[in-house]
């Protein structure tokens, strides 16, 4: 009897097994990549515009990108919240060679950051970690981490130029500061400090020793151009203006004032009147002589600018110096009205420039007692001078 043999099992080819495994891995990989892609897009949607700074995440590998997107999406609320409390501007400096982590750690003591990890991962994700520049920055605690990162990746603080015109009174300076809002200067604080309504240490400037304690700094805020850091406040500005005055009015000027029987305060008061009387620097010395001659013989100064100072802002002419004055204006009862009160007014009416101060320090010798606008001169704003009232009337009538 023949024995029946069972067939031997078919042997599987190793190549076929490898092919099946490769196919399986490819399928799993495709599914994983698709899942990761969908998840990544969901994370980006959750992040919204917080990380939309342009060119972010350059050079990140897919796994790091996915990790950062996942981490940041879980911290969206923290990214959208202020890093601290308050809105007081603070100066922050990035030194050469500082890493993003070092910068983050330096922000903490200033109250400009609480979460170093969130900051460093955000700047890594956006690509701003390599763009933060050395420099000085003005930051506020109400900024968010994206705000901070973007601010620190831009150029640092730039200086600001402020220009005060010759002969502006403090009120005009305040209006200028209100209109321009330069640096960190509060116009109201500037007004209060210069008026003496807020504490300001005047003892550092010996030329202010003749200024009455209850008087403003009118006359001593030297006009001109000032370049200041963007974080400068009102006190800083006042300091450099007073320092400029100290530089521009040397000891020889002050000695000359003293020789004429004038304190620095008196001299600045007189210079402030001359500053508003003429735009022609070359005749300021003669005007100083006229006023000096009048004071020496007890005549009233009769200076229009002192009355204009009392009137203040004139709405109809949109000017702080009403012109022409009406007859009624000359009767305003004020110690500044030099048509009614003898001697110098109580204090300066403007902040004079160097030419007017030089004129008081070195008046042009003359016996003139009067002057009036010269309508026949080719030099705009110039004046004609006279020794007595009769000559003065002839000069006045020439322009009528």
Written overview of the protein:
This protein has 400 residues and is mainly alpha-helical. The chain has 3 domains: 77-152, Dna Ligase, domain 1 (2-Layer Sandwich), CATH 3.30.1490.480; 158-248, 2-Layer Sandwich (Dna Ligase, domain 1), CATH 3.30.1490; 261-400, no CATH class. Helix content is 44%, strand content 7%. The chain has helices spanning 14-47, 62-73, 76-80, 100-107, 116-126, 145-152, 170-180, 187-195, 234-248, 251-259, 264-277, 284-297, 304-311, 354-361, 389-397, and strands at 90-94, 135-139, 160-164, 224-228, 370-373, 383-386. The protein has a two-stranded antiparallel ribbon with strand order 1-2. The chain has a two-stranded antiparallel sheet with strand order 3-4. It has a two-stranded antiparallel ribbon with strand order 5-6. α12 crosses α14. The longest helix is centred in the N-terminal third of the chain and has 34 residues, at 14-47. It is elongated. It starts with 13 loop residues before the first helix and ends with a helix.
Structural class determined from secondary elements: mainly alpha
Helix coverage percent? 40-55%
- What's the helix-strand series? HHHEHHEHEHHEHHHHHHEEH
The portion of residues forming beta strands comes to 5-15%
Radius of gyration: 38 Å
Order of the strands making up the biggest sheet: 1-2
Integer tally of domains: 3
What's the N-to-C terminus distance? Answer: 158 Å
Helix count, DSSP H or I runs of 4 or more residues: 15
Low-confidence stretches: 36-40, 51-56
Number of strands: 6
Mean pLDDT: 87
Question: What global shape is seen?
Answer: elongated
Largest sheet: 2 strands, antiparallel
């Amino acid at each position: 009897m023949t024995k029946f043999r069972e067939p031997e099992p078919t042997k599987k080819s190793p190549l076929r097994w490898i092919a099946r495994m490769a196919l399986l891995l490819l399928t799993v990989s495709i599914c994983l990549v698709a899942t990761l892609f969908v998840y990544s897009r969901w994370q980006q949607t959750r992040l919204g515009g917080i990380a939309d700074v342009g060119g972010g995440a350059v050079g990140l590998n897919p796994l790091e990108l996915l990790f950062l997107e996942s981490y940041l999406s879980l911290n969206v609320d923290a990214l959208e919240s202020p890093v601290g409390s308050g809105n007081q501007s603070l100066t922050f400096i990035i030194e050469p060679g500082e890493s993003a982590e070092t910068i983050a750690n330096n922000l903490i003591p200033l109250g400009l950051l609480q979460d170093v990890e969130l900051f460093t991962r955000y700047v890594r994700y956006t690509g701003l970690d390599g763009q933060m520049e050395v420099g000085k920055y003005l930051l506020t605690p109400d900024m968010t981490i994206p705000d901070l990162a973007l601010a620190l990746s831009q150029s640092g603080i730039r200086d600001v130029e402020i220009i005060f015109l010759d002969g502006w009174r403090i009120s005009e300076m305040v209006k200028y500061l209100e209109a321009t809002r330069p640096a960190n200067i509060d116009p109201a604080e500037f007004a209060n400090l210069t008026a003496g309504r807020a504490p300001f240490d005047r003892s550092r400037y010996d030329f202010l020793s003749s200024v009455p304690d209850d008087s403003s700094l009118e006359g001593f805020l030297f006009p001109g151009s000032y370049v200041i850091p963007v974080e400068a406040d009102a006190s800083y500005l006042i300091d450099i203006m007073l320092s400029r005055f100290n530089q521009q009015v040397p000891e020889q000027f002050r000695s000359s004032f003293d020789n004429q029987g004038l304190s620095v305060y008196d001299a600045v008061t007189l210079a402030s009147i001359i500053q508003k009387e003429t735009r022609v620097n070359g005749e300021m010395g003669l005007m100083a002589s006229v006023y000096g001659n009048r004071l020496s013989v007890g005549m009233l100064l009769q200076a229009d600018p002192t009355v204009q100072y009392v009137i203040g802002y004139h709405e109809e002419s949109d000017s702080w110096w009403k012109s022409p004055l009406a007859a009624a204006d000359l009767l305003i009862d004020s110690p500044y009205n030099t048509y009614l009160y003898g001697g110098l007014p109580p204090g300066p009416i403007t902040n004079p420039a160097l030419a007017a101060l030089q004129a008081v320090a070195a008046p042009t010798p003359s016996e003139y007692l009067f002057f009036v606008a010269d309508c026949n001169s080719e030099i705009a704003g110039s004046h004609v001078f006279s020794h007595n009232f009769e000559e003065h009337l002839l000069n006045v009538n020439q322009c009528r």
